[in-house]
Amino acid sequence: MRNIVLLPGDGVGPEVTREAAACLEMISDRCSLGLTFEEHDFGGIAIDRHGTPLPAATLAACQSADAVLLGAIGGPEWDGAPERPEAGLLKLRAALGLFANLRPTKVLAGLEHLSPLRKQFVTAADVMVVRELTGGAYFGEKRLEADMASDLCVYTRAEIERIAHIAFETARARRGRVTSVDKANVLSSSKLWRGVVGEVATDYQDVALEHLYVDAAAMAVIMAPRRFDVILTENMFGDILSDQMSALVGSIGLLPSASIGATGPGLFEPVHGSAPDLAGLDTANPAGAIASAAMLLEAGLGLREAAVMLNDALEATLRSGCWTADLGGNARCSEFGAKVRDELACRLTGRDAHLELIAMNRGCCG
Fold it and tell me: I need a surface site. Which of 102, 153, 310, 361 has the fewest CB within 10 A?
């Protein structure tokens, strides 16, 4: 048995999580994966019900889970709360030791027209951002006064080394190129970053390394995305660049992410926010959540075959023209999820027939 904790969260989070979880349940039932699911409050809804975005019961459940699937958190209604929903996410990442955030962006053949950018720029773009997740200005000491504010950006050699190894290992399984993004011409933390990444690169002679300033990278991911294979960068730069790359595919609603550590459960979530103005309207795009569920299967549970089937079903749904409003279509969130499961059922049926044929052949061979 493998236990999956669901954190639907706020806004459209419950809607997209519902569709992704239904896909996981279908695969588990048909493939006898033994997945179990339990839902917990997290984010703004947890503030309303428990007075904190990360209740002790939620944290304990996540720590004992095999993987965690998150919807989305936050919204303007909690702007004045003593502790914002996003603070709960930072605490959860730290408590689970999730130091690496993997954010893939891939333009599917035949769907280049969904991007607002010219086809010549986005065709065949396939980029993985490896973002350091527990350091930098997001976690540094903070001061806020009437006439002065500061956010301390701190990185240690050990933090940079461990995320660099993740990036180089990821590149080895892809196309063998790492672009390390920093601002080493200005920031001391980036100077250390560049030096340590260069040292780690000596252990990966089969992987090419280039360094790029973040301002140049911001332009290149839009104008020449095929230049990139794996982008390795620090927390804030990775947050910004990976959101920016949603322009390549046409909507941030399509993008998944995985947050992983050295041990313990990973956290899987769509890149998009809670979109409170869309909450309850059944118009959100669940593709990012479903793609995150596929990452959960592969990166979180080691179930590559199941992940491939779910990704194939998702891509087939998009190629069929079943699009939600953010992509220019009129499919409801629930309709899109149902279409993915129809495609998934076809693949599961084909798998069952294939396995049955193998069993028959084995029987004939005695």
Answer: 361
